[in-house]
């Protein structure tokens, strides 16, 4: 009997050691690291902190490589970042007015991290957590995964979130954002918050970039950048980029710069629609953006104030532009906006496709 008890004790210890080993391995997999995808002359780097895109190297018309996204040299700098450089933001990107919403008769209060409103998921949104790496092939793709818990920043239910960056051919980058609620209905609206400067991240402002936005309408906002609920035409306003023109050509007519959601033309469905085309004349670089989402936030980094970034570059106002494809901001409080509510058993899918050329 004593030998039997000893054997059981040894087995128990062995199981405990194995469980501890699994825990240690899991902890190691959550370490913050950097990852690179490379194919041809396109090279992109990431960190699993915030699933952030930290750099993207592109050739210009003379084959000169430049990093065309703003960012930092160290992961610690991203931890202290208030700009959301390159991050995946959520559970609900953009703003929620009054940091509250009602769902199925219940009032939910979210973290008010911008005055009395919620911005990009709250104080510790998806851009400020450590993701795990589920799959990584350096010449092809990387998949990050995050398990968001019930009550995180005030949002209901457990949600599994996956983000896959994928190289296609030698000049395309695709991004697939997926989410599945596990036990409660919840709003989900993820966005990529990359700041682009096609002349190079350290080259100055983006006012001479030309942009075309394939959208005839916007969702106007109040003084706190919360949508009023209206959907209005851009005709005759500084927001009209149906034909390509320089970003700086009418920016002086706006208080601060561009920071508005455009309603992308066409029918929202399974097919991708072209949302924007950006070009830079000195380098000849051009970027096309396609998506399956109804909106795109055009932001001209109006709030950047001498942020020290990669290679000690100093990023000032208008140093980069953001094109955040998304559901409409504050949709949870506007019934006339496309719903962002996803129920258990349903899936959220957000696709972005970037095509880069230089002529």
From TrEMBL:
Q: In which pathway does it act?
A: Carbohydrate metabolism; hexose metabolism
Q: Which reaction does it catalyse?
A: alpha-D-glucose = beta-D-glucose
Q: What class of enzyme is it?
A: isomerase
Q: Which SUPFAM superfamilies match?
A: Galactose mutarotase-like
Q: Which residues form the active site?
A: 193 (proton donor), 324 (proton acceptor)
Q: Which family does it belong to?
A: Belongs to the aldose epimerase family.
Could you tell me what this protein is called? Answer: Aldose 1-epimerase
């Amino acid at each position: 009997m004593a030998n039997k008890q000893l054997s059981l004790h040894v087995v128990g210890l062995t199981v405990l050691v194995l469980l501890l080993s699994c825990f240690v391995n899991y902890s190691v997999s959550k370490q913050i690291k950097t990852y690179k995808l490379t194919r041809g002359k396109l090279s992109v780097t990431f960190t699993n902190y915030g699933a952030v895109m930290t750099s993207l190297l592109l050739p210009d018309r003379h084959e000169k490589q430049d990093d065309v996204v703003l960012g930092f040299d160290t992961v610690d700098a991203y931890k202290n970042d208030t700009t959301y450089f390159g991050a995946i933001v959520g559970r609900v990107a953009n703003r929620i007015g009054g940091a509250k919403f009602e769902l199925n008769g219940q009032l939910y209060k979210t973290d008010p991290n911008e005055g009395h409103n919620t911005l990009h998921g709250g104080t510790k949104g998806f851009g400020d957590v450590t993701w795990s790496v589920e799959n990584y092939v350096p010449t092809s793709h990387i998949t990050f995964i995050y398990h968001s818990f019930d009550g995180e920043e005030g949002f209901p239910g457990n949600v599994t979130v996956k983000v896959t960056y994928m190289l296609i051919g030698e000049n395309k980058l695709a991004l697939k954002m997926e989410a599945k609620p596990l036990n409660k209905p919840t709003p989900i609206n993820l966005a990529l918050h990359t700041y682009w400067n096609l002349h190079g991240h350290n080259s100055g402002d983006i006012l001479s970039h030309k942009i075309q936005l394939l959208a005839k309408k916007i969702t106007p906002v109040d003084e706190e950048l919360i949508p009023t609920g209206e959907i209005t035409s851009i005709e005759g306003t500084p927001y009209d980029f149906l034909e390509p023109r320089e970003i700086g050509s009418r920016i002086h007519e706006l208080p601060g710069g561009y920071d508005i959601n455009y309603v992308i033309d066409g029918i929202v469905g399974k097919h991708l629609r072209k949302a924007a085309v950006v070009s830079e004349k000195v380098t000849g670089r051009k970027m096309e953006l396609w998506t399956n989402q109804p909106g795109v936030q055009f932001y001209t980094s109006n709030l950047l104030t001498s942020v020290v970034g990669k290679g000690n570059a100093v990023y000032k106002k208008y140093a980069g532009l953001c094109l955040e494809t998304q559901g409409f901001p504050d949709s949870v409080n506007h019934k006339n906006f496309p719903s962002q509510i996803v129920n258990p058993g349903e899936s959220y899918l957000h696709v972005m496709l970037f095509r880069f050329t230089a002529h």
